[in-house]
User: Fold this.
Amino acid sequence: MTGFSRFSLSGLACFALIVQLLAGCATTPSAKPVAGGVWPVELASERAEKLAPITTWKLQGRLGVQLENDGFSAALTWLQDDGRFDIRLFDPVGRRVAWLRGTDKAVDLQTAQGQSFSGDNPEKLLQQYLGWSIPVKSLAWWVKGLPDPTTVAWRQEYDDLGRLVSLEQGGWTMRIASYQNDDVLAMPKLTRMQQGNVKLKLLIKSWE
Assistant:
């Protein structure tokens, strides 16, 4: 099991993390260099350079939602094509229970009852009509194991391979419990998120 190092950034430094990583900014970590004398922050920079440009994918898995007095689990399919997303949730027998598609400025939501709603914010649309939400915009980065570069991030932790382990961003606490494998460029496997009384668990089973 790899260890992790904490980078405590604040102010504009937090806001510009991805910019710093992509530019190879030498933020000094508290951990020692790993094998070969490479600092984890250097590995994080190299990893971000390779994964940030990925904007098209299909992932499948399960989403668990735990509310204060309720909870459920659903199969999830997420298609991403640059700035457009198509997220579908299915019940245990394969019936679609929610379908969210659009961009971060124009979104359509279709419920299990066949009702359709539109808005300009995916998070607010889900909250208004389903009673819970997921951080769609930031999650598009977290599923790659990267912070969302458009939002201030706090308390970021990285393992010895330079892979993101946890952070606080956009009012959410996010922790990547495991990756698909031990490769530096591996994608997250199990991600846990919490905002107030809402707890989410995303298990990614396949990534294309």
Notes: The helical segments are 11-15, 17-22, 40-51, 122-130, 136-142.
